[in-house]
C-alpha cells in the first residue's frame, strides 16, 4: 500500500475508533433496523409498487433501476474482490462488530451504494421525495460504521458508486427507450 493510502487508512481507523470509543454509541437496535432497511427488499417493493401504481414514470423508474442495480452489484463485487480491504473487526484486534457482515471485505459499502443509487433514482423521477431519500441513504451508510462493519471512506466510495450507477442506469434506459 502506498504512503497516501496508508495515511487515508490511518485517518479512517482513527475516525472509526473515535465513533466507537469516544462516542460510545448505544442505539444498537435502532441502528440495526436502519441498516436492515438497506438490505434490498425495500427497494424492490417500492419500485414494484411504483411500477404497478404509476404505469409511465413508475415503469421508467423500475427499469432504469434494474439497469443501475446490475451495474452497481457488478462493480461493487469487482471492487470488493480486487481491493480486498479488511473490515474493521479484522484489522482492529480489540474490536468486535455488532453484526456479522454478508461478505468478507469492506470497500466499498454495498449498503451505502444501493441506498444512494435508490436516492438518486428518487431525485430524478420523484424530486419532491429526494431530501427524505438522501437522509435515509445517509442514515443507512452511517449505520454501517456504527455497526462496526465499515470505515467512513467505505461509505464515501459506496455513495459515489451508487450515485454514478443510478445516473448511468437512467441514461442507458433513456437511450434504449428512445424511438429510432
Walk me through what this model shows:
It is a single chain. This protein is an all-alpha fold. The chain has one domain (31-177). It has 8 helices and no strands. It has helices at residues 3-22, 28-36, 41-53, 57-83, 88-91, 110-125, 130-146, 152-177. Helix 2 (28-36) packs across helix 7 and helix 6 (110-125) packs across helix 8.
User: Could you name the ranges where pLDDT drops below 50 across 5 or more consecutive residues?
Assistant: none
Topology order in helix (H) and strand (E) letters: HHHHHHHH
Total helices: the number is 8
| Biggest sheet character | none
The tally of strands reads 0
- Percent of residues in helices: over 70%
Task: Describe the structure concisely.
This protein has one domain (31-177).
Give structural attributes.
globular, 8 helices, mainly alpha
Topology diagram in text:
Blueprint: H1 3-22, H2 28-36, H3 41-53, H4 57-83, H5 88-91, H6 110-125, H7 130-146, H8 152-177
Helix pairs in contact: 2-7, 3-4, 4-6, 4-8, 6-7, 6-8, 7-8
Amino acid at each position: 500500500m502506498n504512503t497516501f493510502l496508508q495515511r487515508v487508512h490511518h485517518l479512517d481507523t482513527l475516525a472509526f475508533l473515535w465513533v466507537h470509543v469516544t462516542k460510545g454509541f448505544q442505539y444498537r437496535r435502532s441502528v440495526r433496523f436502519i441498516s436492515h432497511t438497506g438490505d434490498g427488499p425495500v427497494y424492490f417493493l417500492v419500485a414494484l409498487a411504483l411500477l404497478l401504481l404509476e404505469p409511465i414514470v413508475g415503469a421508467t423508474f423500475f427499469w432504469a433501476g434494474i439497469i443501475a442495480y446490475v451495474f452497481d452489484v457488478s462493480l461493487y463485487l469487482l471492487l470488493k474482490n480486487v481491493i480486498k480491504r479488511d473490515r474493521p473487526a479484522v484489522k482492529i484486534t480489540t474490536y468486535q462488530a455488532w453484526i456479522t457482515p454478508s461478505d468478507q471485505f469492506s470497500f466499498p459499502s454495498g449498503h451505502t451504494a444501493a441506498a444512494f443509487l435508490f436516492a438518486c433514482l428518487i431525485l430524478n423521477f420523484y424530486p419532491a421525495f429526494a431530501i427524505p431519500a438522501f437522509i435515509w441513504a445517509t442514515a443507512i451508510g452511517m449505520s454501517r460504521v456504527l455497526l462496526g462493519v465499515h470505515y467512513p471512506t467505505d461509505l464515501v466510495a459506496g455513495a459515489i458508486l451508487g450515485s454514478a450507477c443510478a445516473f448511468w442506469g437512467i441514461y442507458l434506459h433513456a437511450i434504449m427507450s428512445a424511438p429510432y
